[in-house]
Design goal:
Blueprint: H1 2-42, H2 46-58, H3 60-74, H4 76-93, H5 100-110, H6 117-128, H7 132-164, H8 167-186, H9 197-201, H10 207-215, H11 218-247, H12 252-280, H13 283-301, H14 307-317, H15 320-333, H16 342-367, H17 374-392
Length: 400
């Protein structure tokens, strides 16, 4: 039975990575490359596009936290099954939009669901894997996210939209695939029983107990500050980059490839970065270096032309998903958190990321009216604030 379980956990890890790719990443990252087509059809300006991108993160401020707490209370399997089904339905609803108001509303609805999914995905890694393999497991599911980001940005506008007859059908297809993933979660086994107290209690933390407990942890607030700055920076850049490159004379295909390159290099580096953090035994050191690379890459975008743009995209992108994998692993390894409170803790940290991602797109995009490069400077400044949060964090978690 133990051997059977040890094999089955790799199936769970594969399904978890697919969930990140198909349900969360592809539907999210298809929007920046589809914005030009959507804006032309619906008559949207640059600021309205920024608000549409930001609205998708507004609802995640609350649901990410609630979703993590629900995963702690009712278990990750049920949470992921229902989350995938709802993400498919609400994501497809965006395809029925016919003006700014309706697209904003449907983006708001869709934004309720995907933020609740990553916490349960990473908590699943904490339940099925432990020790040195935990960093690897989180690296694999984060690589799934990176793969989805790359495919969504590379294929949605230049391949799927012409093939399927427009952006609306692209969103319908993505919604249907999310429902299929939810069905796979329905047929998975329950989480394994182990001797780890945290793991055995991980499905039984009352909602009223988890949040007050986690909210008293200083390290969680510092990690929240880190994600406010880093998450806001990254999502601001991702929503703006394809439009920016088009506006400075790049072809639509080249602009989309640049965004896909951001995610492609992240995909290739995620697992090696996670393994490096396992070997070093210090998640914080790797996070500090990664955040500095993001700051430098985004700053470089503000004055780059030609080949320098590719260099900036690679520097900022190569650590993106590795950063998230290590951050989630660090939260799981905090002695005061464990897997018992992991969903709530990750949810609270991601609330800050969602707040940063809500304000950064309209703030940055509005400055494009003065100079197309100004948004990158604002977003780099946000990343500096995120670096400060990590710098103040004491090295935590398991060390070896």
């Amino acid at each position: 039975m133990a051997t059977d379980t040890s094999h089955y956990k790799w199936y769970i890890l594969t399904l978890a990575a697919m969930t990140h790719a198909v349900v969360v990443a592809i539907p999210l990252m298809s929007m920046p490359v589809l914005f030009a087509e959507i804006a032309e059809e619906l008559g949207l300006n640059m600021t309205e596009i920024g608000w549409i991108w930001g609205f998708g993160f507004l609802t995640g401020v609350g649901t990410g936290l609630i979703g993590g707490a629900i995963g702690d209370r009712y278990g990750t399997r049920r949470t992921l099954m229902i989350g995938c089904l709802l993400a498919g339905i609400t994501g497809a609803l965006r395809g029925f939009s016919n003006d700014f108001a309706s697209l904003a509303f449907t983006s708001f609805l869709f934004g309720l669901v995907p933020p609740a999914i990553p916490m349960s995905v990473h908590k699943t890694c904490g339940i099925w894997f432990s020790g040195r393999r935990l960093g690897l497991a989180n690296g694999v599911v984060s690589a799934g996210m990176a793969l989805g980001f790359m495919l969504g940005s590379l294929l949605s506008a230049t391949v799927l939209s012409p093939l399927l007859g427009g952006w609306r059908n692209v969103l319908f297809l993505q919604g249907g695939l999310s429902v299929v993933v939810g069905i796979f979660w329905f047929f998975t086994r329950p989480e394994p029983e182990t001797g780890d107290v945290h793991k055995k209690e991980s499905q039984h933390v009352p909602l009223s107990r988890g949040l007050p407990y986690v909210a008293r942890l200083k390290d969680i607030w510092l990690l929240g500050l880190a994600m406010l700055g880093i998450g806001g920076c990254i999502n601001g850049v991702l929503g703006y980059l394809p439009l920016y490159l088009r506006n400075i004379g790049w072809t639509a295909a080249s602009a989309d490839i640049a965004l896909a390159t951001f995610h492609g290099v992240s995909l290739m580096a995620t697992i090696p970065i996670a393994l490096l953090s396992d070997k070093l035994g210090s998640r914080r050191q790797v996070l500090l270096v990664a955040s500095m690379m993001i700051i430098f890459g985004v700053t470089l975008l503000s004055f780059s032309q030609g080949m320098l743009v590719w260099a900036a995209v690679i520097i900022a992108g190569i650590v993106r998903d590795g950063f998230m994998a290590i951050l989630m692993t660090l939260i799981l390894e905090l002695k005061a958190v464990g897997t018992a409170y992991a969903g709530t803790a990750m949810g609270l940290v991601m609330v800050f990321s969602r707040l940063g991602s809500l304000i950064s797109p309209p703030l940055g995009n509005s400055l494009a009216a003065y100079d197309l490069s100004f948004p990158f400077l604002i977003w780099a400044g946000m990343a500096v604030a995120g670096f400060a949060g990590l710098y103040l964090l004491k090295d935590a978690g398991n060390e070896w």
